Amino acid sequence: MSDDVMQSLDGVSFRLGAPFDFGFLRRYGTVFKVFDEQDSGNVCFGVVGAGGERYFVKFAGASASRYLGTPAEATAGLRAAVAVYQDLAHPSLIKLVRHEAIGGGYAVVFDWVDAICAHRAFPDDYRRFRALPLRVFDRVFRDVLAFHVHVAERGYVAVDFYDGSILWDETAQRTIICDIDFYRRRPATGSADLWGSLRFVSPEERVDGAVIDEVTNVYTMGATAFCLFADCDRSREAWPLSDALYEVASRAISDDRGMRQQSVQELLDEWVELVAGLDLLHAE
């Protein structure tokens, strides 16, 4: 990072691996926020248009400071991701607005969402998220599960889903899922260098040639339960809910695929049935 350069757009400073002309962003509006530390190779912008409409612009083609690949590789990956967002359109998924080759790279534009992120990389958001009541975590978890039931029905497998993909809109009281660029159509196989957070990656995902499927995503969903309800601590002591729910989440993250729930829908059904009688989840 010692060779990185600093640039500024509309008074917002950010870091790049090399200088780049972002003048094309005027097409979308005025920049009010920049996300420059993405290891995907994208540089992302919050922009506001002339009419006050706000967008999240994901751009590949510049030299991102934390990316180990080339701008051309990042651009190809972002282009390919467009079909994923189109195929998996859902009320809980961030809304794709447009996409185009521009500025010597590729831009994908989404509606901006005023929401807090569950990931530690955004400390202010993270503190606010962790302070939410258990009933909200339950809502978020059910929404995440329901989206991944949809993912399975559409013939996809979730790759690189993690807590950074989870947003909570406090005003609208709704879950937004973002950053699904690496989701794949089935059949899919694992690899030793597969993208993803170690806290969410199943054993089979890191095995060359191993099948990754909906049972793999059950593991990811189980890991999500522990990150939501116990801040990623998988011990019983950290788990705030019943023994029965702890058992449901623990089975989902079993190294033995045969011990896991065999579909995300099965996991959702088990969860809903057990949560129904817990007053704790409905407390303010």
Topology:
Blueprint: E1 5-9, E2 12-16, E3 30-35, E4 42-48, E5 54-60, H1 71-87, E6 96-102, E7 105-111, E8 116-117, H2 123-130, H3 134-153, E9 156-157, E10 166-169, E11 174-177, E12 184-185, E13 188-189, E14 211-212, H4 214-230, H5 243-252, H6 264-275
Antiparallel strand pairs: 1-2, 3-4, 4-5, 5-7, 6-7, 8-10, 9-12, 10-11, 13-14
Report the structural category: alpha+beta
Strand content: 15-25%
CATH architecture of the largest domain: Orthogonal Bundle
- Report the average pLDDT across residues: 93
Could you walk me through the main structural features you see in this protein, from its secondary elements to its overall organization?
The protein has 284 residues and is of the alpha+beta class. It has 2 domains: 5-111, Phosphorylase Kinase, domain 1, CATH 3.30.200; 116-278, Transferase(Phosphotransferase), domain 1, CATH 1.10.510. It has 6 helices and 14 strands. A 5-stranded antiparallel β-sheet has the order 3-4-5-7-6, covered by helices on one side. The protein has a 3-stranded antiparallel β-sheet with strand order 8-10-11. Strands 1-2 form a two-stranded antiparallel ribbon. β10 (166-169) and β11 (174-177) form a beta hairpin. α5 packs antiparallel against α6. The longest helix has 20 residues, at 134-153. The radius of gyration is 19 Å and the shape is globular. The model has no long low-confidence stretch (mean pLDDT 93).
